[in-house]
Design brief:
The protein has a domain at 84-287: Rossmann fold, CATH 3.40.50. By secondary structure, it is an alpha/beta fold. The protein starts with a strand and ends with a helix. α3 (123-132) links the parallel β8 and β9 (136-141). Helix content is 36%, strand content 21%. The chain is globular and about 65 Å long. α9 packs across α10 (322-336). It has a 7-stranded mixed beta sheet, with helices on both faces. The structure holds zinc ion. Zinc ion (ZN) binds next to loops.
Length: 338
């Protein structure tokens, strides 16, 4: 575990503390062998707008940390065969993504090779093969069950396990025309190393697609980040401008294609952004557009006020309604047992 004292995107030391709790705030168990899960210690970078977890695992404890979560999370989708609903959801996400990408010149047509990072069950790769003529298909995922489905049911050969900390490519091919990245920047322990690696892996006229990257701006307003806490896997709480800036710093020309208005259960969250990146020249941090931090800080303050009002109402109810008290204490007891 380490604590960053500079922004992981632009290296600025001017950081504004943000008091979001983690989603593990109600869990008593936070130690798993040598892995201790702490509060994320969020901060907002005053230069590039990135809101990020200052406390994060390093290379030595990242694997143990991911294993620890497998004991905490109920992963109904990570089984073989995956539930029908999961497969349908992946298909719907394919429809959505390829409709967006199909209207961008030179992304899908006439291309051969594709790498899908966090490919889940391999549905997008199979669709690119069957519907768009891609011939060389490569996928990486965290779950053995997904890899098995991709190989046995979808006939994909080049599937590998994704390392939690860094992008290792266990294939002979080291350059790709299209790289699809599923919810990758939000989780990255070292986001700029990730972008640099993606740039290396991309052919000159190829494109990287970042999908399932949540735009947090509406969530700041809602106060839900206080109520539920922030998933401890989420190291970058992105917004459209902060992701845009990060891509510019990483040597890409970014374009936001869409922000998904509806949730596709098990495949995509409401408010997930899709970014298309092509190779460009990296810009210096000082050349970033000026950051008016007021809208972000106002949104977070509004969310906090909503949450405080929620706590007040809850306290009042607990005082006056005995049944509510019982339900709350049973809920708390159940949560402890997870
Ligand atoms: Zn920054």
């Amino acid at each position: 575990m380490k604590t960053l004292d500079r922004c992981p995107a632009c290296d600025s030391g001017e950081l504004i503390p943000i008091d979001f709790p983690t989603d593990l705030k109600d869990h008593e168990v936070r130690e798993f062998g040598s892995v201790v899960i702490k509060d994320s210690g969020f901060a907002l970078c005053a230069r590039c707008q990135l809101l990020f977890a200052r406390n994060r695992q390093d290379r030595s404890d990242a694997v143990g940390y991911y294993d620890a979560f497998s004991k905490l999370e109920k992963r109904e989708y990570a089984v073989y065969p995956p539930p029908r609903e999961f497969l349908d959801a992946q298909n719907r996400l394919s429809d959505y993504l390829f409709q967006l990408l199909g209207s961008e010149a030179g992304v899908l047509e006439g291309k051969q090779s594709v790498l899908n990072i966090r490919s889940e069950c391999g549905m997008h790769l199979a669709r690119l093969r069957d519907d768009y003529g891609f011939k060389e298909l490569y996928g990486l995922d965290h779950f053995e069950s997904n890899i098995r489905y991709a190989k046995e049911n979808l006939g994909l050969v080049n599937m590998g396990l994704l390392h939690p900390f860094e992008l290792e490519i266990p294939f002979d091919r080291k350059q790709f025309d299209l790289i699809l990245c599923n919810h990758l920047v939000t989780h990255a322990f070292e986001p700029m190393s990730l972008l640099a690696h993606l740039r290396q892996l991309l052919s000159e006229d190829g494109a990287v697609v970042l999908y399932n990257e949540i735009d947090h701006m509406p969530r700041f307003y809602e106060g839900s980040l206080y109520k539920k806490g922030v998933v401890n896997f989420h190291k970058q709480l992105l917004t459209e401008p902060s992701l845009h800036n990060m891509c510019l710093l990483g040597g890409f020309q970014p374009k936001m294609l869409a922000c998904n208005p509806e949730k596709i259960r098990w495949a995509s969250n409401r408010g997930s952004m899709v970014f298309l990146l092509r190779k460009g020249e990296a810009i210096a941090p000082d050349a970033l557009p000026p950051f008016d931090r007021k809208p972000v800080l106002d949104a977070i303050a509004e969310g906090r006020a909503k949450y405080d009002r929620h706590l007040e109402r809850k306290a009042k109810k607990a005082e006056t309604i005995p049944l509510y008290k019982t339900v709350t204490s049973v809920k708390r007891w159940l949560r402890r047992r997870v």
